[in-house]
Design a protein that fits this description.
The strands form 2 sheets. A 6-stranded mixed sheet has the order 6-5-7-10-9-8, sandwiched between helices. It has 11 helices and 10 strands. It is elongated. It has 2 domains: 126 residues, Molybdopterin cofactor biosynthesis C (MoaC) domain (Alpha-Beta Plaits, 2-Layer Sandwich), CATH 3.30.70; 159 residues, MoaB/Mog-like domain (Molybdenum Cofactor Biosythetic Enzyme, Chain A, 3-Layer(aba) Sandwich), CATH 3.40.980.10. Helix 2 packs antiparallel against helix 4, helix 6 packs parallel to helix 10 and helix 9 crosses helix 10. Strand 2 and strand 3 form a beta hairpin. The chain is of the alpha/beta class.
Length: 307
């Protein structure tokens, strides 16, 4: 199985369809409900729903997951039996396989019920026709990459006695997004220097995104939050809440992180924890969804992603 523990729950939806091709005489028997084994459409529907809920029992690499809704319809269309399966859940991975399994099981049961009447049947065109949810659904596209700065806040790293890991994790993560990391600096735990550097990046150099890592705890030298707050014009409490919520699901220590986030003009500033795990988990929690803030800052509104 693929490890999905780093993913966040999102609303997932998928619809699959497929067909059972048979003779017109066979389809007439289905329509008349005169098949010896019983009601084909009702049986196939029930079988499809049951199978979708048990997909992980037969698909080796599928995760067991709670399904919030499954529906299967079985109808005659263009002289063929059409099965459709819709699945919805709030979870970490998609439900395409559940939808396909529901369709396949519905058609298999119909095939079994009709095979004494028709020896030339075949199942065709089983496919996912719609899906939504997950990180890929919330990706943003820009005509040019966003310009980002990564600031590592640490006395020991600044003095060269400690290797930076968190800043490099952030840079690597941004490399898979429509973002160019144009600045990577290491600063000491000095409130004025941190504040001045952030101010210059957003006010003078017009960086779109500034991410700091380190100085968000309760240590005597942790001043990144105090350096950042006075600069912010609009606070984004939901961003900081998401970081802490995501982190606390993995370690209780995440609740002790004090990071803030907000905007200055069209620039977004994010404080992240200084630990490598904290930085990685924060990036996993926020991206790519947080990038939707830029179309909003640019006046583009808050449109829902398209199917």
């Amino acid at each position: 199985m693929i490890n999905v523990s780093h993913k966040s729950n999102t609303l997932r939806y998928a619809r699959a369809e497929g067909y059972l091709e048979a003779s017109s005489k066979t389809m007439q028997r289905v329509e008349e409900n005169s098949v010896p084994k019983g009601d084909v459409k009702a049986t196939a529907r029930a079988a499809g729903i049951s199978a979708a809920k048990r997909t992980s029992d037969i698909m080796v690499f599928c995760h067991p997951m709670p399904l919030d809704w499954v529906d299967v319809s079985v109808e005659i269309e263009d002289n063929r039996l059409k099965a459709s399966c819709e699945v919805e859940t709030v979870w970490k991975t998609g439900v395409e396989m559940e939808a396909i399994t529901g369709v396949s099981a519905a058609l298999l049961n119909a095939f079994d019920m009709l095979k004494p009447l028709d020896k030339e049947m075949k199942m065709t065109e089983i496919q996912v026709v719609k899906k939504r949810g997950g990180k890929s659904y919330y990706k943003e596209e820009f005509s040019e990459p966003l310009k980002a700065a990564v600031l590592v806040i640490s006395d020991s790293t600044y003095e060269g006695t400690r290797e930076d890991k968190s800043g490099k994790i952030i840079k690597e993560f941004l490399g898979d997004l429509p973002v160019e990391t144009a600045v990577y600096d290491i600063l000491p735990d000095d409130m004025k220097r941190i504040r001045d550097r952030i101010h210059t990046l957003v006010k003078d150099e017009k960086f779109d995104l500034v991410i700091t890592t380190g100085g968000t705890g309760f240590g005597p030298k942790d001043v990144t939050v105090e350096a950042t707050k006075p600069i912010l014009e609009k606070l984004a409490p939901g961003i900081a809440e998401k970081i802490r919520d995501y982190g606390t699901q993995r370690t209780p220590y995440a609740m002790l992180s004090r990071e803030v986030a907000g905007t200055v003009g069209n620039s977004l500033i994010l404080n992240l924890p200084g630990s490598s795990n904290g930085a990685r988990e924060s990036m996993q929690a926020l991206f790519p969804g947080v990038l939707h803030i830029f179309p909003m800052l640019w006046g583009g509104g808050h449109e829902k992603p398209k199917d």
